[in-house]
Amino acid sequence: xxxxxxxxxxxxxxxxxxxxxxxxxxxxxxxxxxxxxxxxxxxxxxxxxxxxxxxxxxxxxxxxxxxxxxxxxxxxxxxxxxxxxxxxxxxxxxxxxxxxxxxxxxxxxxxxxxxxxxxxxxxxxxxxxxxxxxxxxxxxxxxxxxxxxxxxxxxxxxxxxxxxxxxxxxxxxxxxxxxxxxxxxxxxxxxxxxxxxxxxxxxxxxxxxxxxxxxxxxxxxxxxxxxxxxxxxxxxxxxxxxxxxxxxxxxxxxxxxxxxxxxxxxxxxxxxxxxxxxxxxxxxxxxxxxxxxxxxxxxxxxxxxxxxxxxxxxxxxxxxxxxxxxxxxxxxxxxxxxxxxxxxxxxxxxxxxxxxxxxxxxxxxxxxxxxxxxxxxxxxxxxxxxxxxxxxxxxxxxxxxxxxxxxxxxxxxxxxxxxxxxx
Length: 423
Prior knowledge:
Elements: H1 3-7, H2 22-30, E1 34-36, E2 43-45, H3 48-56, E3 61-62, H4 84-90, H5 107-118, H6 121-140, E4 147-149, H7 150-166, H8 171-181, H9 198-215, H10 221-227, H11 238-269, H12 271-279, H13 284-294, E5 301-305, E6 309-311, E7 314-316, E8 321-324, H14 326-329, H15 365-382, E9 383-388, H16 390-393, E10 416-421
Helix pairs in contact: 6-7, 6-15, 7-8, 7-11, 9-10, 9-11, 11-12, 11-13, 11-15
């Protein structure tokens, strides 16, 4: 599309952009790293340095509107030079206001600390042992066919069941979780619509678990989840723990599955890259980070300016909705040389914003990286000559891929692969 055509598009409603948003990101960048788009008044942050300035200034920028952005319905105008009191009075009316990503300190500090008490290094190590078994179990289901649809056959179930194990969901209930949260009832579809209400199921299930373990403690992970204290030693309400557990499922599984599929697409598209990584498994972490940078599963998040501030030389009044476009900042040529290229020798390979930054950095990042590493190790061990299935996606140079039609998220709806089983 031409710049003239981009001029008339409202990015937040232009689903035709979402299969390949990167030309539009460059159009935004041409207006400067900080630019107020004309359709909804949101300020778009495409520069890496400017994104970092927003992420690190938590005193100025609230996360209350991280999902709703300029579409949040406030009962009063956001007027004045300090709207902090308005935010605190009405924030509970905004979408996802009960979820950790929308919290600000001090509530965010306490709840994130509670989450980190649940995702301990010891628990992550135990969980990784389960990952190795589960990866083989999922591959066993399709290895003899020599082909698979990687999201449905592996990534979706793998990421969901890894979180289920991490949180101690009883084994007899894990298939129910998979049925509720995947298949035709996945939280999002390629229409971009919410086709199910996954959080409702999770809220009910985890409330039941936690109440039961508090009444009847056992020597299991779920009891530790139910009895974990806040940093000050106080006991969280059942609702607090339920929300944290539900957020891990709702956010972590979906975004990590997208990461796994992206990595396999890169390997299937580039035989030379595939052979390099097969020959040198030390390159796996580099492939993971470059996949996160190039195709960030979370493309952006909103912030709300509490007070007037200047970012990138642009004055932002109090009440300004800012959209930090991680997907664009991760391709800022001022920060990353050859930003559109996958480079395993990139010197600043860990400096991307694929997991956000600052106090709202994805708490599940270590878990996602472990899932990605285990997946690549076992896939490369057991699947040779991985290729994109041309009967579904078309030939090289003319691929047909469908991406989820949501501006906040990026990920393939399916990835069909062929391969040679390795005995």
